[in-house]
Amino acid sequence: MSSQAAEAPIPASFDLPAIPPLARHPGWLDDRRASALKAFRANGLPHRRVEEWKYSDLRNAIEGQGRNESDVTNPAPDPFEAIAGPRLVVRDGAFDAALSSAEEVEFLDLALLDDDAPDWVRNGLGQVLSNSMGNASLALMRGGVAIRISRGTAAQLHLRFLQETETMHARVFVEVEDGASLLLLESHAGVHGVGNLGIEIFLRANAQMTHVRLAEPAPDAIRIEEIGVVLARDARYFAHLPQTGAQLSRLELSVDLQGSGAEAALDGAGVLGDRLHADVTTRVDHSAANTASTQLFKYIAGGHSRAIYQGKIAVHKGADGSDSRQTAKAILTGQRAEADLKPELEILADDVKCAHGAAVGDLDADSLFYLRSRGISEGEARELLVRAFIEETVTRIKREDVRTAVWGFLEDALPRALEVSE
Amino acid sequence: MSLLEIENLHVASQGKEILKGLSLVIREGEVHAIMGPNGSGKSTLSYTLAGRQGYEITAGRILYRGEDLALFAPEERSAKGIFLALQYPVEIPGVTTMNFLKAALNAQRRARGETEFDALSILRLVRETASGLNIPEEMLRRALNVGFSGGEKKRLEILQMALFKPSLTILDETDSGLDIDALKLVADGVNALRAPDRAMLVITHYQRLLDYIVPHRVHVLANGRIVAEGGSELAHELEAKGYAGFVKDAA
């Protein structure tokens, strides 16, 4: 498939003069999509001269020559296979009813929206993600799903994305009503092509959501995803975002703590090797008083891989009593690996607590020697230290079966990150 | 037979020569002490024996059971029965003490071609040995050396020594930072392991530890060379006179 990619230029699907129409022509949505397309076309695909895309040159990856071609041909198995529960499948950007089974959960197929769409979708869809790729996913989407968890209830849902086509644009809309809670398991399979997914999440007062995203390593794929989360009073959002990389992988997470007492905790381990790339770019807005956020991202980068974390925290006027913490660390296990960690703070309120730090280093030589002097081989010692380094991000996952799935997913990626290259 | 023969050893670290012709023979069953002032090369000697990177043998050699030690990686030396108790044991967050002990014990056994212990027998072995050293089980569940006091870290080194049963134990300033009770406990642990087929090299700045671990021979190290040798009484002489006289003789 990737050999065809060189002949059939991919940018065409990003450069449509008009939005691809949805089946039932919802006028309200078409208007939003048309203006999103206009906004996207004004700047086109982001590239390295755009500050936020400095380390992830999307335009060059899509239009340029050097598309990777590895021997990976089959998608990996579902990382959440062992966890039973409702499941929605989006295939090549469109909801696939035949592969889905989620009677317990209220959802809508975005491709079938019309002018009678319910208010909860209508009021929210397309309101949050206003950056360039967010505009693209709204304007160019083939479909996707909208999910609502009703007031006071608890739900679990696995959203699975499959991609076989050369390009995929999709959208997901999630609304968790007052006092409701959702465990959202998100998984991606597909080893070729360009995918762009936008997820909008509204957490109403006192709602709670745990979001776990696993995308299989894909050396020949370009994966873009924007997640926008809006939290009302006392809502809580926990995101666990392990990274194993792609030819270019960009995860943009924008969290707006709009209601007082709202809280977000974002974390993830990145385990990278070969020529894999993973970029996690976050923005957390403390827009109300007494809001809290923590971020913990830890990368192991081996081979020629590239690990990126850019995190901006903005504490706005009136967000007094806010507390934000941000930590990003990377250990380079490959001579030619690179990590770019860029934490950033902007504080416009008084009486706030903010702590941030970033560090890139090698495996600790004292620790390595200590373990080896106790009989543990160099390879085993390195692995022990690397596991210990990333474990902290995994132990934060509360549910044991989910934790096991995430740990297994990262373990599968470890050999690549620990491979000793010349 | 001689277990360890160090012949005219020269070692450089970061381009600077630190050991300048050190010779020493240790036979099975013997306990030797090396005393010396700061900067005399004590830690360089222990790191060189354990095979740490960055310590380059520029001349001379170390024979262990007749084999050239320079040919072996630190983990191979460990499997051959060499154990270095460190002055500052390293803290390793995320690795529990129990898992570390299990990994180390089995790695050594594997390297020697012995069958590995199963989880249960290791647990039993470690618990029994630990209780004899006043190491509470709770410590074994914590991350390796993280948040341990100086005394606890040293006790954990002694626990490893008791578990690994090395042929040659090198104690690198194990007494530093210990109060008298901790010192006695460490010494008891070391003495319990004295055996006709084992040898020890006790490296220390102070004579105090040698009141509890009485050596067969004492060597004074100054400026990278052995400058004086004697029986255990030499330690007391040093304590009374100080290093100054010996160091001057060496210069």
List keywords for this structure.
heterodimer; A: 422 residues; alpha/beta; 10-stranded mixed β-sheet; 39% strand; B: 251 residues; 6-stranded mixed β-sheet; 4-stranded antiparallel β-sheet; 10 helices; globular
Helix content class of chain A: 10-25%
Content-based structural category of chain B: alpha/beta
What's the story with the biggest beta sheet of chain A?
Answer: 10 strands, mixed
Order of helices and strands of chain B: EEEHEEHEEHHHEHEHEHEEHH
Give the terminus-to-terminus CA distance of chain B.
Answer: 33 Å
Helical/strand content category of chain A: alpha/beta
Strand content of chain B: 25-35%
Report the biggest beta sheet of chain B as strand number plus sense, adding barrel if it closes.
6 strands, mixed
| Rg from alpha-carbon coordinates of chain B | 18 Å
Walk across the major sheet of chain A and give the strand order: 2-1-5-7-9-11-13-15-17-19
Contiguous helical run count of chain A: 8
How many DSSP E strands of chain A? 19
Let me know the average pLDDT of chain A: 92
Tell me what you see in this structure:
- The complex is a heterodimer of chains A (422) and B (251).
- Chain A has 422 residues and is an alpha/beta fold.
- Helix content of chain A is 21%, strand content 39%.
- Chain A has 8 helices and 19 strands.
- In chain A, strands 2-1-5-7-9-11-13-15-17-19 form a 10-stranded mixed β-sheet. A 9-stranded mixed β-sheet of chain A has the order 3-4-6-8-10-12-14-16-18.
- In chain A, strand 1 and strand 2 form a beta hairpin.
- In chain A, helix 2 packs across helix 5 and helix 6 crosses helix 7.
- Chain B is an alpha/beta fold and 251 residues long.
- Chain B is 39% helix and 30% strand.
- Chain B contains 10 helices and 12 strands.
- Chain B has a 6-stranded mixed β-sheet with strand order 6-9-10-3-11-12, sandwiched between helices. Chain B has a 4-stranded antiparallel β-sheet with strand order 2-1-4-5. A two-stranded antiparallel sheet of chain B has the order 7-8.
- In chain B, a hairpin with a 2-residue loop joins strand 11 and strand 12.
- Chain B is globular, with a radius of gyration of 18 Å.
- At the A-B interface, helix 6 and helix 7 of A face helix 2, strand 7 and helix 3 of B.
